[in-house]
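Reviewer comment 2.1 asked that we show a complete input and output for one of the modelled complexes. We chose the shikimate-3-phosphate case, as it is the one discussed in the main text.
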Amino acid sequence: MLRNVDLPIGAGYAALPLKAGLSSWLRYATLELSMHQQISPATSVSGAIQLPGDKSISHRYAMLAGIAEGPTKISNYSTGADCQSTLACVRALGAATETKDGVVCIHGQGLDGLREPAAALDAGNSGSTIRMLSGILAAQRFVSTIGGDESLSRRPMQRIMTPLAQMGARIEARENRFPPLTIHGGPLHRVEYTLPVASAQVKSCVLIAGLFADGRTTVHEPVRTRDHTELALREFGADVEVDRLSITVTGHPKLEGRELRVPGDLSSAAFFLVAALIVPEASLTIHGVGLNPTRSALLDFLAEMGAQIKILDVSSTGGELVGDVLIRKSRGSGGVRGGVLEKARTAALIDEIPVLAILGAASEEGLIVRDASELRVKETDRIATIAENFQRMGLKIELHQDGFEVPGRQKFHAAELDSFGDHRIAMAFSVAALAADGPCSILGADAASVSFPEFFDTLQRVAE
Ligand code: S3P
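Response of the prediction step:
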């Protein structure tokens, strides 16, 4: 059903029409992506799968382990390239890491024990790595530089530079806002900071910097964002207080190495849940998925649309909820209604919007997405890259600056699709291909490995 065609690096680019206004085309043309994945339509999605560890939680565990005292052992650490970038940075800062039998061990150096890296730190494609690690780098006695790939180099960094400057750090950036960042670390002072955008990465950056400041650092959020940092900080021994949308951390805690297990990634599960909902029949169990309430809005949204989802065997690990997610759909029934995403819910589902757009097109009433201008500054401008692939599949979509509207009951036509180097676009449109009227190909499908290297193998196991 799935077939890889490995093209020589650079092949296929000549066929790319250059479109004004779609900057990601240009960005893409400079990436060395080569895998052309063929995907045939499927009639069922079934079986039982387990997913690699949550990307957000893995980043946080690795960074906090690096500044904790003693070793931390992390099982089910994300296999994605982004989390490997974080591990490499932590190592370059002097915390040795080793992986044995799938368990990552990080030898923490304590709050004051990191050392100056020999070269610039490489965050790869990972916004989480550069933004959250900057909170640690800002407090060091040395100067460090951190950058990443072509896509990361176009992502906005003022959002962390502003609060870190208020805490006393001096940061230089390309054009004052883009990576690479040169961070002149030093003693930090506490801050009370109101986030101008809903961003868990920025919140986390400030809270992590607050570990190194005297007194109590408070972040006020406009809406609730994922709280993995708060939970992880507590696990490592920090004092964290949460009062509705305000989070306070006390400086100079004693952080201690721990044994932790990362729950399966719910954002990766989203691709399989939508796959199950757009093919005629489905019976899929996803074991050990993270169900943190600040992430699980996805399941509520799907259930509200009419999806038959059950959660079983819920337990807790490291303060994070985890459980099995079951989804069923029988032939001739089980189609979903559609819905509206706006305000806090858009923020809570921001990473799932590419694949929800596809579900919207297959739904009865379609999907409206509002308040999603953050999609413009993800790994690609996701409103533009969703729209381009929709157009190729003959799907209608109406675009807005901060969202889009997708009519329901649409037919998916076979097409040559493109990841534009964005992992979630690669996976979302691989799922769309299952419902197409013929085989599709996805150029640059290997971008999926940024968060989920096993994606195509797993899809192949469940889709028929
Ligand atoms: C993340 C937060 C979100 C999300 C990203 C991971 C995190 O980004 O899109 O994939 O781990 O904190 P923002 O903080 O920019 O909203």
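The chain has 14 helices and 24 strands. We note this here for comparison with the apo prediction described in Section 3.2.
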